[in-house]
Amino acid sequence: MDGTIATTVGINQAGTGGVLLPDAVLDKLYQSYALKQKRVAFACYLIASILFDVWAIAVPQGQSLESIIVTSVFLTINIVLAIVLRFCGRGRFRGVIWEIAPHLAWLLAIKQLFLQLFLKGSVTPRDSLGWAVLLNFLVYVTLPVLLKYTGILLGLGSFATYVNAIIGLAKKENYFWEQQVANILLLIAATLIGLLCYFLAEAKQRRAFLEAKQGLEVKMLIEEQSAEQERLLLSVLPEHVAVKMRQDLGSTNSEQFKKIYMSRHENVR
């Protein structure tokens, strides 16, 4: 990111003599920076998915053999995805891998949530509610996707999938609709908390990004001024004298400033 900013700043310096970044370029650079920062949090999402799979297999809760097999398949896929990101996420195809991985991980979680409810013999209005609430929170906090488009769609997809699955599969027992209202309120609360965490993290990242940008702009401005001073120095002094002067001025020895640079020329007409 720093190299891209420095290159853009250099182009703007050459064209306008100032240090400016166009808003479109700055926004694109920030989005790329923010997505890269959230890649670290994506590991938490995969760990949560793996732990949920282990819990769904190990803890007896009336699950059928088909449900255990399906969960084992999803557990294997999540582990493979984590290994691929660990060893190939910085390789040649890292751009494509990181473009696909968040959407694939979310799709796996949604498919698993629906299949576990579908394969369970008797579904209650509270089944898998904890995982659905956590999933709605993690979508906004850990997935390296843009909130403006994909993030909102994934969050709404998680919300709608669980609510529709429970309404369609659960038995209409007493207080069924009251439980649905409670489920929806919990999911909305998880979504709001996730959005709050997202915006707080984004504000912090944007501030750090702008500070880095300002530091690079100052650095480029100083380098430009230094180059201009060097051109002025070479215009009035011979090159070997100018080089020696720069060396002496850069020295920490205060005695160097007492030197007088003179050249003696004889038989000059």
From TrEMBL:
Limits of the Adenylate cyclase N-terminal domain: 25-251
The UniProt record lists the keyword Lyase: yes
One cellular-component annotation, GO: plasma membrane
Domain of life: Eukaryota
Listed GO MF terms: adenylate cyclase activity; nucleotide binding
GO aspect biological process, one term: adenylate cyclase-activating G protein-coupled receptor signaling pathway
Signal peptide as annotated in the record: none
Membrane-spanning intervals of the chain: 40-58, 64-84, 96-117, 129-147, 152-170, 182-201
Pfam families tied to this protein: AC_N
InterPro entries, sorted: AC_N
Swiss-Prot/TrEMBL keywords: Lyase, Membrane, Nucleotide-binding, Transmembrane, Transmembrane helix
Protein name: Adenylate cyclase N-terminal domain-containing protein
Species whose genome carries this gene: Anopheles epiroticus
